[in-house]
Amino acid sequence: MKTWIIANPTSGSAQAKLDRVRDLIAERPFVELKVTTEPGHARVLAAEAADQGIDCVMAAGGDGTIHEVVQGLAVAASPPRLALLPLGTGNDLARTLGISVEPVEALALLDHGVLRPLDLMRVQMDGKTYYGANVSAGGFSGQVNEVMTDEMKSTWGPLAYVRGAVGVLPDLTSYQTSLAWDDGEFERVEALNVVVANGRTCAGGIRVAPEADPSDGLLDVVVVRHGSLLDLASVATRLLAGDYLGCEEVSLRRVRRIRITSEPGMWFNIDGELIGNAPVSFEVVPGAISVLVPPEPVPAGPEPT
Ligand SMILES: Nc1ncnc2c1ncn2[C@@H]1O[C@H](COP(=O)(O)OP(=O)(O)OP(=O)(O)O)[C@@H](O)[C@H]1O
């Protein structure tokens, strides 16, 4: 299987692990390592791999790198299969798919992995189209902007209240948000966050969509409605514990498509990359690509008697 490993040398643990990856693939004649030289390069390389009929593209980096690779694969006529070599900080899609952060184990999936269909989210904002592989989170506004660094914003922005962090809790903006589910009419809600998810976690393991299945042909949309400070503190705590879907302010709906407008404009990121605060639509592309994942663990047999 001809494979290109597209590696981002600036991803979280790349410095520590890339030499090891080089050693591990030295004996694999069909595996080539392509190291990116700038942001956006992984997309170009992934598109090139598809053009050249490469069988498999392994995204070596974090969710930002996977995001770029997916932009290249999603528009290909017959996209190579995807594999992941997690070298990022959060590695959230890899978590959902059960892919190890150990290079030896991740690389072994090239031999023993099984193919799983991976849905993508087609996102449209301001006349531009993006493809998301993991999670898009919307929320936050001016106050958060002022107190957070760019990196914190793209990672935590929409979920800033979780960090309790930034002292924004007392001053949270609520958004007059209109949501149109599938082809339905717009419905208004006073929201704090809208999360549109294919994968289950973002920001390094925060379970924003704990029940999402990236192969089910549907998007999990979680809406956090505005509530009292006390209630929101409980939402934050339960989000960290992975069970905030049980909160009264939190609702989950599964759809193929959702359109969102809000006043003021809700900022959205996709896979951790901030895209803007204009009206936005999300549509699932069921099984857009195939991804190599570990085989299902064999269920334990009955205890010997
Ligand atoms: N050669 C490069 N030089 C500088 N930046 C790059 C290069 N290649 C890719 N990038 C950028 O690095 C950013 C971060 O990458 P990535 O998300 O893979 O790592 P991470 O932030 O450590 O991981 P995670 O998103 O899982 O937390 C991406 O937005 C990507 O555009």
From TrEMBL:
It comes from Chondromyces crocatus. This is DAGKc domain-containing protein. Keywords: ATP-binding, Kinase, Nucleotide-binding, Transferase. Residues 1-127 form the DAGKc domain. One of its GO terms (biological process) is phospholipid biosynthetic process. GO terms for molecular function: ATP binding; kinase activity. It comes from the Bacteria. The keyword Transferase applies.
